[in-house]
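Readers of this paper often ask what the protein records in our data store actually look like. This encoding replaces a full spatial description with a residue-level series of whole-number codes. For reference, a complete record is included directly beneath this paragraph.
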Amino acid sequence: MSMPEEGSKLLSAREISSRRVSGLIKAYLQEYQSYSGSNPFPEIVEEATFRKILKDSNFWISQDLEDRLISTIAKSVDISGLLYHLGTETLITNAFDLLPLDDTKIFIDELIHRIPILINRLTRTVFLHIFFTGPKTALFQFEYLSRYKEKWYDAIFFQGMLNGLAVLYELKDYKINMTKTRLFGIHVSHKDLGDDIVFGADVNEYRLTWTDEPLSLSRAIANEDQNSNNRHKVMIVSRGDTLNEKISIVDINDVVDKSRELAIENRDLEAAVEVLKSFKFELEKKQLSIAKDLRLAKNIQKGLIPQIIPDWKGIQFWTAYYPMQEVSGDYYDYFPFASDRLGVVVCDVSGHGVPAAFITALSKMLFTNYKMGKPSETFKFINRDLLDLVKQQGYTTCVYALIQDDYKIVYSTAGHPRPILHRARTNKAEILEGEGTFLGMFPEGGDTYKDHSVQLEPGDKLFLYTDGITEAESDKGVPYGEERLLNAIESCADMTIQETIEHIMQLHKEFTMGTDPMDDITLLGWQLSTKLPEFNDYKKLGDESYKAKNFAKACEYFQQAYEILPRELNTQLIYGRALAHSRKFEEASSLLESYNRFKTNNYISHAVLGFCYYKLESFEKAELEWKKAHSLKDDNLSVLYNLAMVYLKLGAKAKMRDMLDRMKRIDIQNQNIIPLEKKWESMLDEE
């Protein structure tokens, strides 16, 4: 094949030794191609020239031809590792010729000064300048002639050569960093060359630093009968000072072979690292996805489980809830039955994590659906539905109690720890009776559920809990147990239900100190207030004062009632309204915010809270509350008027116009519309 015209031009200049590209092509053909003996780059170089590049170590070619060959190979494979190791071998194989001709020993700093000789044997495009900035720190500055352009692969090859120095002198603690380059980017990851490279500089610069003890090299004197053509390049390695000198003989070929073996091992290791990085990246992606899903599940479950149960007819509640993981298999809830009964449930689903959380969500749905007159009847329906939905792939234990307005408690258990009753008059805690099997495990489970009852008296406390409390262990492996729980309850005789729950959990924490939780923990308790008659009296007086529009007096009575039962919702609402009428907007907004956390669908609470925010000039909050009120009662003109006033304050002309149009659709004769339209027109005039 005749060489292309362009190829002739490429050979007309000879600036680069073909040693580098020859080694690269050989490695490329050996490892990445099935070499048939023919030229794989006929469009770049003719056959004769290709064979010279492979066979003649003293053959020179143009920089452009080398660049085209390297660029072509680089399109198929990542050659950065090959270039680096070729640079290392080039230094090692040529270092022998840089040594003194006699057996004089030289240290690494002397050999460094001789490297420009080697560079001149490899290229005419660049010159090397060397500066020592310290006893063990050398700067290598590669200066390109003006008519030649530096290449990205030079950066890797030259750094590989400096690594050859480290290999020859057996350096253990050294660093080779590129500090400057004329390039504006490099084909490989910059961190592999240096951490703080200055790009677009006027020179290519590397810094070599080392801390190892001195080691020297010298030629080994050959025997006179040794054929010079077959003579191995052998060096003498000297370690230590003159008195303690240790000498060894090293064959350059052995060093090159070991370097190649190490390069192959490093390349395999790098490949393995890349695979591990890929696995790590995928694992991190999955972990992030799982963490995101768990956060979502946690937030969903947080919405399913009430943070606080409001007071009900003189009964005060408090809970302690500690999930072992992001999501929990423990579940508790309450269910109002009109005005005469309140259902309270505590469940413990088998297992942990998302599957258990899924069954807790099902449990909430089922308990909400089945508000039967007896807990045992509710269990029968839920057991049947769980069997149908979960297919015996999970189950839950449960205790369910109905609190009646005469304070009689009717309850049933399903494989769950039995309730504990603390009598105020005797200060004795006892475990109540109970039986029944798990929910969602046995089709015949409905026959095992029984109803039991107990009458609550003023000051009495009743506790529902999961076995995460009693089965928790101390650091010596001793379980907390029921007896210890009973004693803890009795030690809280004079405390409120909130103080009691918090004190029990503090004692439990001290007992299990130094151990990891083995299960989710839930403790739910309630107490019938001993001050219920006083509460009812204050509430009645407050209601009468409110109806008489004596709001200041109403606030006094409601405050006293509120101190007795602070989470009684009806009192919270009317007390908040009385405070608003008394222009105590901050106190009113605090109460109504608390009320809305329990009751989200009360039109009056949102409307009054919006009024308080408006008076406090929190117009965005007022807008939000009045929009909630409007969604519950969209034909109320007063809320539309209030929203229009908010948008007037906020300068939201389009939204104000919308409110006016809605008011007209409801009542075009409304006396508030004309004044509002004038205000809206004045907003337009101000523009």
Remarks:
- The longest strand covers residues 126-134.
